[in-house]
Amino acid sequence: MKLVLLNVKFSPNLGDGIIAECLEWALREADPTISAVSCDLAGRTAFGDGINQSRRTVYAVLDRLPKPVRRQFVEYMLKHMIRTRLREHYDNALKGADAALIGGGQLIADADLNFPLKISAAVSQARQRNVQVGVYGAGVGGCFSEEGHALFDKAFGKGLVCTRLRDEISVSRWRKNFAADDIRTVHDPGMLARQVYGPARGSRRKRPLIGVGITNPSTLNLHADEKTYGKREWRDFFIWLCEALVADGYDVQLFTNGAHDDHVFADFVFAGAEGMLRASGRIRPARTLTRPAELAHLIGSFDGLVAHRLHAAIVAYSYGVPHVGLGWDSKMDGFFSTVGRQDFLISDTRPSSSAVCASIGEAMRAGIDEDARAEAMAVTRGEVRDLVGLLKAACLAHA
């Protein structure tokens, strides 16, 4: 059976690559005869493709446009891309496919019609090829434009072989917006990172090392549920947090999930730290990461972690690394609730560095419940096995 995963595997955010590679691995483990291939919805075919290096300039221009103008411009560009390049990209990937899964990440979301347009086009190509379509491990956003909702409704309205979402918040939003005949929650495939990528390389340390994940404020403020800090305020927050962690006896490693604009902001934060601390090596700059495995191994090497990015927290959980989440989007609530770590999610979108530092100390003392972690990973693999059985039965019935 050929299974096409419609995702954003080659996104500059390597967390998306982790989702894709973990789901591909789990499908092969469940049934070695399955051919599971990813089709990146943005048309990328390898890590490093796309506009990673120029994202900062593109977003800087878009951020200055009035919202209606920005939306019209982005919509025009997306429709042009779909018409001239992406439809053929989707169709080539779907040749010979038995089923297609919209799989992993916050894909059922509407930011400037990005995913509504792409997913609608990809599903249209799948229907033309008589390919069964389902949703697996995806998150659902909280707000849709009228056109975005109509595009998703059309894509899903002819029936899905399955609808498996990564948290109860997403299930509730789906039920509110779309047909829901067979819908339930599953664990995010990124939960399997430790099994997919293997152990992280450790090193002897004088002090525990805390990974501080840096996300560009433009990204936060584009997608955040509530208003967050501005660029200067976030820079000050991270500097004060790093200095407080050092004062509490930790060393700090800045890191990003790989996007170039995140890395530029991480350098901006590092440059603002007190010179003696930088010289001492107690605060270390972010490394350039190019592959999902590099991100997974880096996170797995930390003694503790704090980050905005959902998949930094998911990978930390998979590796048993105590972690604190910085709340900015309800998908963070969904994951932390799923694994019973609500106490370690800072819900304030404009947090204080002292509160976050205190939460990291509590997380380090509490550690990760190893039995719960092992059970979560076993359940994740079992859910994929169930998915394979469901897809095979559906394809057989359809044929």
Description:
The protein is an alpha/beta fold. The protein has helices at residues 14-30, 55-64, 67-94, 114-128, 146-157, 168-177, 193-197, 217-223, 231-247, 260-272, 275-280, 292-301, 310-318, 330-338, 353-366, 370-398, and strands at 2-7, 35-40, 99-108, 132-140, 163-165, 183-185, 209-213, 251-255, 283-284, 304-307, 323-326, 345-346. The strands form two sheets. A six-stranded parallel β-sheet has the order 2-1-3-4-5-6, with helices on both faces. A six-stranded parallel β-sheet has the order 9-8-7-10-11-12, sandwiched between helices. Helix 1 (14-30) crosses helix 12 (292-301), helix 1 (14-30) crosses helix 16 and helix 3 packs parallel to helix 4 (114-128). The protein is globular.
> In CATH, what is the class of the largest domain?
Alpha Beta
Low-confidence stretches: none
- CATH fold name of the largest domain: Rossmann fold
Number of helices: 16
Question: What is the C-alpha radius of gyration, as a whole number of Å?
Answer: 21 Å
Shape: globular
State the total count of DSSP E strands: 12
User: How many domains, in number, for the residues?
Assistant: 2
